[in-house]
Amino acid sequence: MAAVGMERDELLSMLLVFLDKVLQAQARLYTFWHNLMRERQQEDNLILPAITLVPLPPPQTRSHWMKVRSKDWWEMVVLLEFSNDEWKQNFRMTRLSFMKLCALMESHMAPEDVTVRAPVPLIMRVAVVLYKLGSCAEYRVVANQFVIIRSSVKKFFYMFCKGMVQGPIKQLIRTPTEAAAEEIARRFKQSHHIPQIMGLINGTHISILPPSDGYKDFVNHKGWPSYIIQAVVDDQFCCKMPGSAHDAIALRHSDLFQRAHLLPKVRKHLFFSFCLMEQPKMYAYTNLLIVGDPAYSLLDWLIKGYSNSPRLTPEQESFNTYLNSVRVGVEMTFGLLKSRWKVLLKRSHFLFTFMPTMIATCCALHNFFQKERDHASSSWLVEARDRTVHFPHSDNVRYVCA
């Protein structure tokens, strides 16, 4: 027991010695730190008077990370107070159609999840694009209206058009099925008394800003640069097949001409009146026809009227009258298209290589609204007609209500 007690006393004395050395080291460290800070303070006191004698540089204006702006027009007026008429006047459609369009474009326009600050919501992005298409305002004007930066307006516009061409346009603009084509032909026959008509074809010019190199290649017969919209429409003014000089030349270079063998045909029952015996039913497929103006060539799937001549028979003149009454539909379609989207009424500042994408987007949106029965306002048609009178950059267009 005595030995154990001695070992314990030795350990305790060693621990006390160790603690004493630790305290001495802390004291020396504190003294060193205190002296160092005092020396630095003395140095600062010597340097400060010299610094005060040196003139300070002028203050610099710092750029803002984000300016404080008010979005009351969009958040408080448009979303909460706009009536259907006001919504249609500003965004060229009703609120219900707008929401359906947002759902259609969500996969292409939705903001990313990871952002530094709150992103522009989907419905505002779509509204920016529609406001731009419907008013043809500059990026600066649209940006000020929605209180965003100009680069965002351009970004949303290109994102919308490219997304539309990559996805929804395939459902909105396509060749009708055989059953749909037969139904179109039935409606044409009922309204205009001409059988086997499945569509109407024509073209119209859209003014563009051409490149300086090759400018003459874009100048049309009226003397100003343009692209040709060539489209086939049905009796409900929907674009069925897109195209994109002379109308006949444009047709020859279009996808429609290259894929004409894929056009729907109708099955007809063949019967022979001279057969006295009962025969099994026989069927044959015959082409449904597309109606064009005299500029087009006559094809086995494209029909046009007789050329004007004093030698026309009464039957031929009557045929021309009926056919012309049908052909008015495609001119009305172009009028509806341009009256809704003013961006097509004037020379656009878009790059000429992007113009076909923008034009195709307008045609797809036109079909979307026709299917939603969201028709153009009569005031738009009057405004477009007046603008065409002063700035004749359109032809083959009728601005009348459907």
TrEMBL record:
| Main localization category | nucleus
Q: Name one Pfam family in it.
A: DDE_Tnp_4
Which range is the signal sequence, renumbered to this chain?
A: none
Q: Which InterPro entries match?
A: HARBI1-like (IPR045249), HARBI1_dom (IPR027806)
| Swiss-Prot/TrEMBL keywords | Hydrolase, Metal-binding, Nuclease, Nucleus
- Which GO MF terms does the UniProt record name? hydrolase activity; metal ion binding; nuclease activity
Compartment(s) of residence: Nucleus
Using the record's annotation, list all stretches that form the DDE Tnp4 domain. Answer: 201-367
Q: Which GO terms describe its cellular component?
A: nucleus
Claim: Nuclease is one of the keywords in the record: yes
Entry-linked PANTHER family: NUCLEASE HARBI1, PTHR22930
Q: What is this protein called?
A: DDE Tnp4 domain-containing protein
Organism whose genome encodes this protein? Oryzias latipes (Japanese rice fish)
